Amino acid sequence: MTVVHGIPKQSQYDVSSVLSYVRQIVDDVRRRGDTALIEYTKKFDGVDIDSVELGSDAKIKCLEGLDNEVKNAIDTVYELLTKFYEEFKPRDFQVELGGVKLGIMWKPIGSVGIYVPGGRKPYPSTLLMAGVPAQVAKVHRIYVASPPNKIGCVDPAIIYVSQLINAQSIYRVGGAQIIAAMAYGTETVKKVDKIVGPGNIYVQAAKIIVRDVVGIDGVEGPTELVIIADESADPNQVALDMMAQSEHGLESPIVLITTSQKLALAVENLIKDSKGTFYIHVVESLEEALAIANELAPEHLSLHINEAYKVLSSIDNAGAISAGTSPPALIDYIGPNHILPTNRWSRVRGALTVYDFLKPIAILFDDKNIDKKILRAAETLARYEGFDFHAKSIVMRHV
Ligand SMILES: NC(=O)c1ccc[n+]([C@@H]2O[C@H](COP(=O)([O-])OP(=O)(O)OC[C@H]3O[C@@H](n4cnc5c(N)ncnc54)[C@H](O)[C@@H]3O)[C@@H](O)[C@H]2O)c1
Ligand SMILES: N[C@H](CO)Cc1c[nH]c[nH+]1
Ligand SMILES: [Zn+2]
Q1: 357 in a domain, yes or no?
Q2: Is residue 229 part of a domain?
Q3: Ligand 2, atom nearest to 222 Cα
Q4: Which end of the chain is less enclosed by CB atoms within 10 A, N or C?
Q5: Ligand 2 pocket, 241 CB below 6 A?
Q6: What pLDDT band is residue 11 in, cutting at 50, 70 and 90?
Q7: Was 390 annotated as part of a binding site?
Q8: Whose CA is nearest to atom 9 of ligand 2?
Q9: Do 193 and 246 belong together in one domain?
């Protein structure tokens, strides 16, 4: 265990540090297609696969033995998330302003590749978090990719969720290599319009590299947690929340910022035998804690403070906030979503939602009764920009 007294200086696991290494993998997959995918799977995952896609017989075989209790748990979360995203889905919108109708029509993205992490542990919950909003958005074709387990299967629970979300194919390949394949296409892997999903730094670096040809959702690398706690916090709960997110690996910074020296000592004592990269920082005030958290812009932010709801409006940057009696681990399994920005990306984006699978198409129609003032404004701006035909085209129907 490492406990640092202070806050993390900068991400030790910066995605940009592996960009040139990952670019070689991406270029190789682009050149050599399926052959490269099979070779990298042997090299990085230590597994021999004879095909990239899981065929229907393999799917049945790999699904065998999946516990009914796990299936029921998946069904329960699937239902909850479906209801949530149906409620949250934006509606088409139209308004008449200044004599014209302006509107937004939401359309689903044609095809999406969902990366489901699986290097160290399988993450069927991640497929629920991406697959459900994609399905609610009515994405036409969903493809799922995840590293193979030791017997060359994809984890059975991931296959089960793939069926619920009507995925077209499941690719048993992980890492940067499958991101490249979904961006450029190979003999087997379909080129998609957008790639979403979390994963280690190689996966996230690959997404950054291919984003000139494919849409991406953002950077969702190794899990991060910042807890703000005051003297009212229960050290056992704080320590457990810290140990929970540290289960994702040593790359995950787990930070406690507290106004209580007593709590800091108690928590340090409780976590001292667990594996993780922990930071504990004592501050003078809650305001100071909030300022640091906003600067860190963490993935998960957890508030172990009195009347937590009162400070919600002071939080500007966080992927997800858990407060009151809710632990971050509950967000991981029931949502609203655990696919969250890391590496300070919560400064500019939040959780994955149904919006990631939709595009707003702007619509203007029926300008017959447009206000003269608005018409002139458009004409004037067109002429100012030196676009005379734009100006003529705008006014010709109104002379
Ligand atoms: N931010 C989020 O929203 C979020 C959500 C869930 C999980 N996560 C994170 O996802 C991560 C999952 O990581 P993981 O590694 O277990 O699974 P992973 O599926 O992301 O990565 C495994 C793949 O990485 C590739 N790889 C491994 N070592 C390599 C190397 N040296 N060079 C090139 N490629 C290599 C392999 O192909 C392997 O299949 C964890 O850090 C977890 O915290 C983040
Ligand atoms: N905490 C992870 C997001 O950083 C999500 C997760 C999935 N399963 C367990 N945890
Ligand atoms: Zn987690």
Answers
A1: no
A2: yes
A3: 4
A4: C
A5: no
A6: low
A7: yes
A8: 332
A9: no
Q: What is the CATH number of the domain that holds 130?
A: 3.40.50.1980
94, 99, 100, 288, 363 from 372: Cα distances, Å: 21, 9, 11, 53, 20
Q: Please check whether residue 178 is in contact with residue 114, taking contact to mean a CB–CB distance below 8 angstroms.
A: no
The domain in which residue 325 lies consists of 222-338
ipTM of model over 0.95: yes
Q: Do residues 82 and 157 share a domain?
A: yes
Regarding whether 190 and 139 lie in a shared domain, the answer is yes
Q: Is 186 annotated as a binding residue?
A: no
Residue 284 to residue 231: CA distance in whole angstroms: 12
- The catalytic position among 53, 299, 304, 338 is 299
CA distance linking residue 368 with residue 151, whole number of Å = 66
Is residue 299 annotated as part of the catalytic site, yes or no? yes
CB atoms within 10 A of CB 66: 16
Residue 7 forms part of a structural domain: no
* Number of domains present in the structure of the chain: 3
What is the CA 99 to chain-centroid distance, rounded?
41
* 356 is annotated as contributing to ligand binding: no
Query: pLDDT tens digits, residue range 98-121?
Result: 999 999 999 999 999 999 999 999
Average pLDDT over residues 174-189: 98
Instruction: Tell me, yes or no, whether 242 and 334 share the same domain.
Output: yes
- Ligand whose nearest atom lies closest to the CA of 301: 2
- Same structural domain for residues 184 and 241? no
Q: What is the pLDDT of residues 50-104, one digit of tens each?
A: 999 999 999 999 999 899 999 999 999 999 999 999 999 999 999 999 999 999 9
152 occurs within a structural domain? yes
Q: Does the annotation count 300 as an active-site position?
A: yes
User: What does DSSP say about strands 111-115 and 194-196: parallel, antiparallel, or unpaired?
Assistant: parallel
